[in-house]
């Protein structure tokens, strides 16, 4: 099985304004004598990778009880549902994130089986969404006009 893609959860912090805005702020700060160093911290990006077979073309998430589910559809025509609770908790905890990155190494993510998978489509699709009236249902439509409603959350 060749792995070509990953699903990621990315958390960014300490983002600052553009370089032009920073130059203006520096000029203002120099004239006022302000030394607010906290605003000039380096940006931080934390990420959690979930290995996925094939390229991903659709991702839809929904809140289901205390967890976040992600429906992922790729070029191989399979739709999977992943529980993102661990990913979301990990990027917020530096110790869990360090452990995750050690396990992951330099690879494209830790193999994590989906909660549910559907492989009834012959091709990749163009539409996927969670039901707004029934939180455990997903609808997806492929390029060959197959429209399916399926799923049952965890």
Keywords:
154 residues, alpha+beta, four-stranded antiparallel β-sheet, three-stranded antiparallel β-sheet, 3 helices, globular
Per-chain topology:
Layout (H helix, E strand, L loop, with lengths): L4 E9 L5 H14 L11 E9 L3 E9 L2 E8 L4 E5 L1 H8 L1 H11 L11 E3 L6 E6 L7 E5 L4 E4 L4
Antiparallel strand pairs: 1-2, 3-4, 4-5, 5-6, 7-8, 8-9
Strand content: 35-45%
What is the element string, with H for helices and E for strands?
Answer: EHEEEEHHEEEE
Total number of β-strand segments? 9
In whole angstroms, how far apart are the ends? Answer: 27 Å
Number of discrete helical segments: 3
Radius of gyration: 21 Å
Mean pLDDT: 71
For the sheet with most strands, the description reads: 4 strands, antiparallel
Considering DSSP H and I runs of 4 or more, what fraction of the residues is helical?
10-25%
């Amino acid at each position: 099985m060749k792995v070509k893609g990953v699903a990621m959860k990315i958390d960014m912090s300490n983002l600052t304004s553009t370089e032009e805005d920073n130059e203006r702020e520096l000029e203002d700060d120099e004239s006022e004598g302000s030394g607010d160093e906290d605003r000039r911290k380096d940006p931080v990006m934390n990420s959690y990778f979930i290995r996925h077979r094939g390229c991903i073309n659709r991702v839809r998430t929904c809140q289901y009880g205390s967890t976040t589910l992600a429906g992922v559809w790729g070029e191989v025509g399979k739709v999977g549902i992943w529980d993102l609770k661990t990913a979301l908790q990990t990027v917020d905890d530096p110790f869990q994130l360090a452990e995750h990155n050690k396990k992951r190494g330099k690879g494209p993510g830790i193999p994590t089986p989906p909660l549910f998978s559907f492989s009834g489509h012959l091709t990749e699709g163009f539409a996927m969404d969670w039901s707004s009236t029934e939180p455990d249902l997903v609808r997806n439509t492929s390029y060959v006009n197959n429209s399916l409603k399926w799923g049952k959350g965890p």
